[in-house]
Sequence to fold (591 residues):
Amino acid sequence: MTTPLPDTPDSPRLTARHLYWQGWRVARIAEFLDIKAPTIHSWKERDGWEEASPTERVEGALESRLVQLIGKDAKEGRDFKEIDLLGRQIERLARVHRYQETGKEGDLNPNIERRNAGEKKKPRRNYLDDDQIEQLKAAFLERCFQYQLDWYEAGLKHRIRNILKSRQIGATDFFSLEAIVDAFEHGRNKIFLSASKAQAHIFRNYITKFVKEVCDVDLKGDPIVLDNGAELHFLGTNSKTAQGYHGDVYLDEYFWIHRFQEFRKVTSGMAMHKKWRQTYFSTPSSLGHEAYPFWSGELFNKRRKKSERQEFDVSHAALAGGALCPDGHWRQIVTVEDAIAGGCDLFDLEQLKLEYSPDEYANLLMCQFVDDSQSAFPLSLVHPCMVDSWEVWDDYRPFAPRPVGDRGVWIGYDPTGTGEDGDGAGLVVVLPARSAGEKHRILERHRLKGEDYEAQAAFIESFRTKYRIEHIGIDVSGLGEAVAEHVEKWFPTLTRFRYDPAVKGRLVMQAQQIMRKDRLEFDAGWRDMAESFMAIKRELTASGRQFTYTSGRSKATGHADLAWAAMHALSHEPIDGPAVGAGQSIMEMSE
Fold:
């Protein structure tokens, strides 16, 4: 038997009609609704159930289902998708009615009239028709987890969203797709901001890939200008280049942006009009970051009289479900455990707890801020190194066969460990400063997992075709010696580091000195590089007689590998700077 439509107390007549159109006999309808059969027969004759056309029957069913969905309090992704689908069907039936009245095929399909009207026009750039836009929105809603649908609904109700999130729960992907769907639907400008322009272009990659997959349309341009006039800009945090725009603003990883308070004024200015939305989202960094007062409400209260100040509760207990705060921000905290509860099936929670140390798990996945006061490289020291490489490195061509021409580079490598505490490997490529007035630049950083020593050595050798290599520094602990032996066959002057507290101390000391003199740069979007330096702490050795530096490495993360690799490269500079013939290098001390 066909499953009936849900009954409503005030519409048994409509319910009876829908059941009849589904093929139910009058006797069965009367039995199901507990209504006398003659009454059902009377309704059938009076309302002309038998004479109703197929389109009238379909319209009645569409109307009933649509009203039911609209009245539903807590909607799911499939509900939004079905509402869109039903709306499209109603529009199509309206076209059918016009066609029945006029007999014009153009009323049935408006594209027919446009096809040969006037002169042939060039293909429309960055254009989707109504059906494609509906298809795009349906595909977007279909892939959302419940917590992402919460973000979506919050964006419909509130002008400012402020989200603290776990790693890898799909925030950048979600906001990219939300933005492009809205831009096509309503013609609203979108401005994507991140720590660097390279990082901001991740939004662009998500958008172009999604539109291509769903609608087979290639979006072109930077900025992307849609056929309806909406502009999509992808910007770094250079305040000079991030002014003069207006639209909905998306600020990614704002807890890792240097001089956040300065840039926030620019950001909010772009979306000052009440019609524009502001969306801030980030993983946590340090409690000392400039953005923390913005998140905690302290900034809101700072310039207000005591009597005007408001209480902010930014605990996970208060914000797990999202809450509108006194400053007009809708705030939410989404941990990895919240994401899993919200339908995200991308994680193995028990395995994550085994792979990450408690501190790492709390920071990376449970949205807890780091107290970096004990770090050898606190965020305040690392932050000035983070620059928008697209804006300031005009002599670096990352996609060219020889990105820096014939200039020499230094490579640092921290290999994969062995045993139960084995970790990942890290490699960095440094373009060294040529004078005390220049800065060292980390051009590339790479993480390797699960490779044997031959594969690691081959990976290092692959950089020979891109760069003229002047120095390679390798930690020879664990698999490091085997890697070094292979690399030594083609680069006999490589430097081996045999770690002990003294060697570690000298590596850290030189890197600290370089940073304090503002002589190191890497792309501001490389949050993993910053975290790697921040993870290194000064601690006593087991004997309690000497200090050393540890990084809390875990089997899965090798959290500071990139930092140690960078220090292996930077060690090639003499201790007293890059002047020719001056000083003694750390590599000479460690031999």
